[in-house]
Amino acid sequence: MKLKKILISQPEPTDLDKSPYKRLVSDYKLDLTFYKFFEVVGISVTEFRKSRIHISEYTAVIFNSKNSVDHFFRLSKELRESIPESMKYFCATEAIALYLQNYIQYRKRKIFFGNQYFADLIDVMSKHREEKFLFPCSDEKQTEYTKLLDKAKFKYTKAPMYRSVPRDLKHFKLEDFDMIALFSPIGVRSLLINFPKVQESSILVAAFGTSTHAALNAAGIKITIAAPTKNSPSMAMAIENYLLGKQQEAVLVVRPSSLRNNKAAHSGKNIGTKKNKSVFASKTKYKQLMEEKKAKAAARRAERAAAKERLAKEAAEKEAAAAKEAKMNEIAVKVTKEATTKPIATKEIATKTVTPKTGTKKTATSKVTVLKKTTDKAATPKKTTTKKETKKTTTSNTVSAKKAGKEKS
Description:
Distance between the termini: 165 Å
Order of helices and strands: EHEEHEHEHEHEHEEHEHEHHHEEH
Helix content: 25-40%
Largest sheet: 6 strands, mixed
Strand content: 15-25%
Strand order of the largest sheet: 3-8-7-4-5-6
Number of helices: 12
Shape: elongated
CATH topology of the largest domain: Rossmann fold
Structural class: alpha/beta
CATH class of the largest domain: Alpha Beta
């Protein structure tokens, strides 16, 4: 079905050229009609005093919309409540945090905000559990925000400061539009009040947010476009993907990371901010995701095994090199030992002796051991003749001298 006219249950952007809906008008030639299905009415001072809430007794305030900011400061002024300078402000988005500049001086040390969803703000608030929180909100009994705060076990006080009242939509004719875009349960209620037979009409319905989906399902209205999804985080992108014929994706159900571990949530410990996981309604997509995870895990195991094998190989090479070096050192020690223990050479040395009677000089030879020079030039003392050897040589010289004297005579 081709879309031509869409009724969007939101106020018209101040600058359409800078809004995400500009692409739908320029590229797809859609006729967009913006009209808010409800109006916000502030609660009177007399009615608020019945709740017996004193703003000055709290140390932190939670803002989930710009309406909550406006009515909080309106009632504070009308009640003549002085807001302490130490008050901390926790905002669902950065846009709400910047909107606070209309009332207070913007300071980073006392203004905190989430990334995109209220669940992101829960993770930020987990680091400030000691604060006493005040939650300015509508007069609805329970909302998506209060459910998250209750699950996270925060100590907070719900302060109804305004209410949403459905507007008159009977000047519109549903048959003039091809699609209607809804963003809140109060918008669904306004639609049902003004058009009780909307279930029987052929108009397509686009819904943003799980609470809006729940309200439409309870009313028995079929949802054609559900957002936000992974590839369609905004309503404008969801409508564009529908025009391009893309298949409807599973809706993202954002949960605070601090609620993943119930024990840590009860004890007040902060687990840390992690990526919010999406819940997949399609079994095929879930199987595909599991297969991808298994493939990545197998690749990591193979990488670790290869690294382990490489380290073992390097260790074996180092061990072999150390063994080779030890063997070379052993051979060198052995060579030096053999060089120092070579056989000793002997040398004959002539010695002169004198006979006691004739006084003639005779020569005698005696063997003196001389060490051969070694490679390390080790010097050893010369071996001298003993007294016994000297006595023998003297007696032999005396006998030979007597024989020579007889021969002469």
